[in-house]
């Protein structure tokens, strides 16, 4: 039996989900993959592996993410809360890019680059161990 929970997250704007998630378009598809506008990632939440599916419902200026959790075990309210916090952390959803863009608007070269990458929030790994493994694998 599969248990599911769905909820909406609203990141701080600007946030370009597609640009951010493209980082995961290659790699081990059993752990994390991005295709057709949907990111799939297995995360350990409260000791249980939970498949997380993220899709964008909003725009760069009014971002909304639909989050679906899937597990073979019942998903508790604490699991759901921890998943929200972990997703917000991994995708830096609370990071405010506005002051960064404001500081760079007078530099034409950097401004041009930031316009191409507008709304990109660099994802992070949920644990130090995963960060270490990612850095070794990416070398």
Task: Briefly say what this structure is.
By secondary structure, the protein is an alpha+beta fold. It has five helices and five strands; from the N terminus they run βαββββαααα.
Instruction: Look up the CATH topology.
Output: TATA-Binding Protein
SS class? alpha+beta
Task: State the major sheet.
Answer: 5 strands, antiparallel
Helical element count? 5
Task: Estimate what percentage of residues fall within beta strands.
Answer: 25-35%
CATH class: Alpha Beta
Overall geometry comes to globular
Descriptive report:
Helix content is 33%, strand content 25%. The chain has 139 residues and is α+β, with helices and mostly antiparallel strands. It has one domain: 2-Layer Sandwich (TATA-Binding Protein), CATH 3.30.310.20. The chain has a five-stranded antiparallel beta sheet with strand order 1-5-4-3-2.
């Amino acid at each position: 039996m599969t248990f599911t929970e769905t909820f909406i997250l609203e990141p701080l704007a600007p946030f370009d989900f597609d640009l951010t998630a493209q980082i995961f378009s290659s790699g081990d598809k059993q752990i994390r993959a991005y295709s057709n506008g949907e990111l799939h990632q297995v995360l350990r939440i409260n000791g249980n592996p939970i498949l997380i599916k993220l899709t964008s419902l909003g725009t760069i200026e009014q971002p909304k993410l639909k989050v679906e959790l899937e597990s073979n075990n019942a998903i508790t309210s604490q699991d759901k809360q921890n998943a929200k916090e972990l997703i917000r952390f991994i995708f830096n959803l609370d990071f405010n890019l506005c002051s960064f863009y404001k500081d760079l608007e007078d530099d034409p070269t950097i401004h041009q680059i930031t316009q191409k990458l507008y709304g990109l929030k660099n994802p992070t790994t949920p644990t130090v161990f995963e960060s270490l493994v990612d850095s070794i694998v990416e070398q």
